[in-house]
Amino acid sequence: MTRPHILPGEQPQAGKQIFRAVRDRVWQCNVTAIAAIAVVTLLSLFAQDFWLGDLSANLRVQWVVGLIATGFVASVYRRWRWLALHVLMLAVHLPFFGSLVQQTSSNAMTPAITVTTANVFTSNTDYVAIAGELRSTDADVIAVLELSSGLRKYLANAFRDDYPFSLVDSQDNGNFGIGLYSRHEFESAKLTYFNDESIQSIVAGLTVNGRRCQIVATHALPPIGKGGFSHRNRHLQLLAKEVQSLQKQAPGVPVIVMGDLNLTPWSPVFTSFANAAELQRASHAFNCDPTWYRYPVFPFGLVLDHVLATKELTCSSYDVGPDIGSDHRFVTVCLAVASGHRSPD
Description:
By secondary structure, this protein is of the alpha+beta class. The protein has two domains: 10-97; 102-337, Endonuclease/exonuclease/phosphatase (Deoxyribonuclease I, Chain A, 4-Layer Sandwich). The chain is built from eight helices and 14 strands. The strands form three sheets. The chain has a six-stranded mixed β-sheet with strand order 3-4-2-1-14-13, with no helix packed on it. It has a six-stranded mixed β-sheet with strand order 5-6-7-8-12-9, with helices on one face.
């Protein structure tokens, strides 16, 4: 068989055409990605008033990672105007990560209390793993969210010695069962609700290491759709009023709020809530470890589980636990007495 004759320069020319086609295709995909991020960035400007805007704001980590990737491609292609657009979008998102630069207090400070918030997932029946991980936190007080009747019965026995004091409201038909378990006797404890009787929260007072404190354990509704968005926001507004009321009733006694707020620190809704309640989120500096994972829908996860405290306390250690069969991870925080704040008489 006679081999086809290839003219000089024909094969290199075909290779160049393939290269250009691939190059152009990559850039087209990059432009599509940039356009999508531009849309969600614009949406995030309306996070206070619109549920899709809030959803976009809660996903700032994802958008920033995307902007870094598309910005790298734009720089390789030397598309400087597109790169300038990246700088503008980053200027919208990055200020909301300002809380990450807060400094964790020295472990040498006077310890006040260690708390754990644990969304265990209602249908998770690996009770041994749940109880084992909760014990390993060595917390003074543990808030268990999505508490089922089965786990309630198991913990009643497993925690009999380590956490003899508790207030619980389990649920099997829904994801809003809740329990508060403590090594220390409650001076006061009540089930309450913010905006919805079927979604119970717990408010308790106790003394740990000679320091009185008030604890609020809560679980807000996911802000999906206009109704869910309004419901969660109203929950947070009423929660902030409860914290304000606790501070007025007992000035100088710190208030700790912990649980699943279905809200990340990157949303202005979170900032508004924290400011209204005069609370600070407890975390390590430069730490944004996700506490909720559901791949592949939300790569990199979300920070939904929080511990917040009033100015009398400051974070000395912060830890996100391992996978124990829930879509959430447990969050354990050691709080210390902030400088200049003494226990009230």
